[in-house]
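BUG: 3D viewer hangs when loading the predicted structure for this chain

Environment: internal workstation, default settings.
Expected: structure renders.
Actual: progress bar stalls at 90%.

Input used:
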Amino acid sequence: MTPCSPTPSASARDLGRVLSRYGTEPHALLQILRELQAVQGWLAPETLSQVAAALRLTLAQVQGVAGFYRFLHTQPVGRYRVLFSDNVSDRMLGSEALLADLCRRLGVAPGRLSSDGRVSVDRTSCTGLCDQGPALLINHHQVMTHLDAERVAQMTELIRECVPVPQWPPQWFEVHDNIRRAELLLAEPATPGAALAVALVRGPDATLAEMKRSNLRGRGGAGFATGLKWELCRQSPGAERVVVCNADEGEPGTFKDRVLLRRHAHELFEGMSIAALVLRARQGFVYLRGEYRFLLEHLQAVLQQRRDASLLGRTILGHTGFDFDIAIHVGAGAYVCGEETALIESLEGKRGTPRIRPPFPVEHGYLGQPTVVNNVETFCAASHIALYGGERWAGIGTPQSTGTRIHSISGDCERPGVYEYPFGTRITRMLEDCGARDTQALQVGGPSGLCLSPYEFGRRIAFEDVPTAGAFMVFDRSRDMFEVARCFAHFFAHESCGFCTPCRVGTALVAKRMDKLASGQGSRYDIDVLFELDKLMHATTHCALGASACNLLRDTILKFRPAYEQRLQSLYFEPGFDLDAELSIARRMTNRDDAGAHLENWT
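Structure tokens produced before the viewer hung:
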């Protein structure tokens, strides 16, 4: 079948082939839908009906999952599905002009299907390639980096001539690691199995003690003590325990885990196996974000190498009773699945809706079993600690923030890429190393993190000073910080899972207010309303997505006020809008349902 031939209809043969790999368990639903779509192009109604019958689910359940994930399509899409990365760093490099150029050349509107069904062009959230943008995804499988006008023109001709994507120029798909500074974790990889062998000699109890001695804190953002998390999971009642790696690196501006997955996959799997030894777990998962689908074959090959070397599977390294294996679960485009309970829901084949906590995953996680969820960098650090001991790790950094931290640095700097520093390093040092000049602002930890102005650049990276999820986006004085905040306001409105009204409606209202300010129709009262929406969402949303959605907005209003002031009219009131009454009601909101109902009225 060529890319321009008709898309095949659903067939029992396709479904049978997929089910032979995944069985008929409902928790395999997302993977089944993802693989069927890869064969058939989109998920037709008859396909969803067949899946529902095979898995003994209702059609509504299957439709609910298919409609939740951004990379699953229940309507026809182009046989060439082109998705431009829409992070602010891509926009700074000209992605919007390139998207418009491609659409003009192909005669298709953004977000629409061409009349011949050949191509659709749209935007997607950050693809984790900020250090080599502008970037895009082709058919959710291939990534293209360093886009420019010449490549867009050549791509247009290839699509018109129906040339299969694997036959396009290979240099277009090159992804560079861009490691600029390496210390403990980004140094030369350790010998596969070395850390696991040391852990087996120590035994589970002593290995856990080394983890606690290291004071390693999770590298996903929250910074919970890793050794304590493993201990709580081990103490939880349950017949089985599960080890999960969160490789859903969806925070815009973050791409360090992409590099670890490419260069240090053995250390990742080794860290997971060491956790399994401590927990006596038999089952492990890597939740790989859909945008990193291009890494799947590489990761599967490394897993097979480890099985062949007796580092995974039954009787690992000859130790009877030490049976552990890892499966890779590929996401389908949902930022909220970076939250650990939403990730577990997705692993179970459901919509990625965050759970109410408690109970926490260490008590009640995947399929109700005690589950440890750590991210890629954390497991790599655990492997290092098992090999060299907790004392060495604890001697680096600060007492409350031990070891090193890997950062993805992008934006207005000469040397974007991945940098590893000991905790306690000053931000000024990091800006100098990456070649940042005339820096106006630094967004730390993605849009849900902190926005720092120059007077704060003397601070240090540490949980007790500037905590970070591993991303630095640099903005020089040519950038409009209002537009940066507006871009991310639309990101949160788009990525809200829609479960709770305060987040679903609140993020949309924030984006709407920002658009109003951008049009020159706003006033200072709109800024007051934005502050109140922030407070309301922070207090009432179901999960941290809504609670942190206005962090960048709040920081930019406080630290870069002129960017907002220049867009304000001196006085502007919407007809019938009583600001004092609205704010008084919002302040009294203590109940999620009441707050949500009031937000609905604001629309």
